[in-house]
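FIELD: query
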Amino acid sequence: MEPIADEIQRLQSCINDLIGVLAIPATWAGQGSAQIVETLLDALIGMLRLDFAYAWLKDRSGGSPLEVVRFAGWLDLPADPQEMGELLRRCLGDDSHKWPPRVRKSIRNSDVSIVPMRLGLRDEIGVIAVGSRRDDFPGATERLLLNVATNQAVIGLHESWALSEQKRLAKELDEKVARQTVELTAANHELKKEITERSRMEENLRRSESFLLEAQRLSHTGSWRHDGPSGTVTVSPEVRRIFGIKPEENSQTVEFFLSRVHPADRPGEEQNYARALSAKDDFEADYRIVLPDGSIKHVHNTGHPVLNDRGDILEFVGTVVDVTEQWQARVKLENALEEIKRLRDRLHDENLALREEITRSSMFEEIVGCSQPLRNVLVQVAKVAPTDSTVLISGETGTGKELIARAIHQRSHRSARAFISVNCGAIPHSLIASELFGHEKGAFTGAMQRRAGRFEAAEGGTLFLDEIAELPMETQTALLRVLQEREFERIGSTEPLKVDVRVVAATNRDLSNSVRNGTFREDLFYRLNVFPIHLPSLRERADDIPLLVEYLIDRYGKRAGKNFKDIGKRTLELFQAYHWPGNIRELQNVIERAVVLSDSETFLVDESWLRRETTYESSASGSVSSAADDPEKALIEAALVKSRGRVSGPSGAAARLGIPRQTLESKILRLGINKHRFKS
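FIELD: result
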């Protein structure tokens, strides 16, 4: 009975070991090759009471093999798996295919039974080698367990490798999917961008087309295309509007558009277009079209051929512009120009008649008086005016020298051209030459551009040079050249300019004295003094004072909105008794002041105004006796006495004399007058 019991126990133990071996793979789920081998070796050592267990597995990727070793006994064996592998190969041989199923070897003074087991067919997976010091190792049961364990290891390794491969493939697939997802996302993004850009371009194209159509509508310009091979005509909406084409009408032929051309213009347009087709050249035409409602439009049509490589016409493209409004405007403009010309001719005739009437009614504008001295002057003016002779007008300040110069101009054949007046004393000496003759750009500091002078402005007319005695010597030389040679040069230029100008000069000084003093050129004096006219002072033509007073009261009264019915007798006596050093200009100032201050219908003057002036005549005679030889100096000193040495301002000497302040200052300096002594 005991042998049976032992056998049962042995079988029971074998079954348990077998169950344990079969249960090992359950722990391998999700494990790698190293974990599977390590778990298997540990289980075999425990179940079979082994002294060591060694495993060698190939690397499926071609790398270094995996080597694992486990120990349970007291054998003196190397702990390093690589060294253990070398030791086993020395015992079993280098070729694992020739390893015996069991070997009893003495390893480091210990006899050990070694059992090698191949993993897979022809050990393509690897080998496992176990060893025990027991002589009976391995028994049948142990070999069975080893075979089962080996098979389980092969299955587990295959499953592990398959799982790893699945994971690798899954990872690669995930990575590929991720890459493709990124690529697809990027492609999708690019596609969206392209779609967006295309949508934007389409929108811009639609807007451009809309703008083009609107521009065509606003400018009344349409576009057309005549296809060469098919003969089809395509037009824009504006062409349909211009030609009055209805939606149901077929406008795809040339004949349709020719049918709208005015009958009188159609033959010429047919020939014009046929000639362009034959010559393969541009064409341009203006003609009329007749719309279905009978209205007529004027159009401007242009075309351009588009040729292929062989020179054949692919198509004709062009534009049609509705120029009806421009044509109507041109007709209206031409009619208006005709009307303007007619009115201008009529105005010219009326102007001539008016000039003749003015000439007949008043020989000299604004020259009032009938005294003998004035009549003598007017006789001289009437004789010299029709000629081109140079005139020199002399006289005291305020005697009306410019009026006489204008009268000479108006009675001359130059009256239709300009009358230019220049006060030589009012312009600084450094600028007088530029003022008279002009200058080129950059001729001097501040000459930013070319400027024409007064001689050029007076071309064909009259140039009046007032206060000619104030001209500096260098300008006198240039003026002499103009009078002699009728030419001059702009400042900064070497090109002579011809000029046709009559010169009338005026002065309130004795030029012969200036010639003797060396301040005026003698030759220029003779050139200017061709026809001298001396204007009498108001003192010398006292008989004209009543007429002048009436004339000036009427003029200034109208300006002030006042109407004077008569003139005070005492006022008229004061006017005739007064010396009038400022002549007519002073008389004008007194009358204008009285008109402003007067409140009645009778014109009156404050006697104190003229009494002070009369008092001055006696008191000033001593102070200015030294200036008796120079009337101009005496006149200026008299004005300074009245203004108490004040030059500028409403009551200053310049205002009293009726000349610019700068001119008076220049004269005071030139004549050596001390204006400060008159302030007391």
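FIELD: remark
The chain has four domains: 2-169, 220-322, 372-534, 542-678.
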